[in-house]
Amino acid sequence: MTDQASSRKEIARLLRECRTIAVVGLSSNPARPSYRVACYMQQRGKVVIPVNPRETDVLGEQAYPSLSAVPGAIDLVNVFRRSEEAGAVVDEAIRMRAKAVWLQEGVVDEAAALRARQAGLQVVMDRCWLKEYVRCVGG
Domain extents for the chain? Predict the structure, then answer.
């Protein structure tokens, strides 16, 4: 089951209001979807925080090995990891008191989404941040 609970209005609000976005699984490889989406985020004025233990710098930003290593507040955690790895990332986002979690297209973890909602986080699941931005906010 994919996320049907997030209305277009709620998604548009998240896209507009979330400024600091931790991108878990962000790769420095320009051919990877995570890179293209994060680059688009930066071009729209978002502060992109790369989270990937295999990277040191992505898109001119220091990369962190985990969410817990990121200093400061995070508005949204965007997850580019396999579904079976998403739950641990969501739990870390809850502990860090992020405002929202966004599981990219193909990333589905209903139990993790429920935990996040119960903790007060907004959840978008199985949707592409870039596609939704174009659809809800405009290119």
Answer: 8-136
Burial zone of 9 (CB within 10 Å; 0-12 exposed, 13-18 middle, 19+ buried):
exposed
Tokens 């220091």 map to which residue? Answer: 62
User: pLDDT tens track of the chain, all 139 residues?
Assistant: 344 446 888 899 999 999 999 999 999 999 999 999 999 999 999 999 999 999 999 999 999 999 999 999 999 999 999 999 999 999 999 999 999 999 999 999 999 999 999 999 999 999 999 999 998 888 6
Report the C-alpha gap between 17 and 28 in whole angstroms. Answer: 26
Find tokens 């089951």 and name the residue.
Answer: 1
Q: Which fold has domain 8-136?
A: Rossmann fold (3.40.50)
Nearest-10 Cα torsion for 13, 135, 57, 94: 40
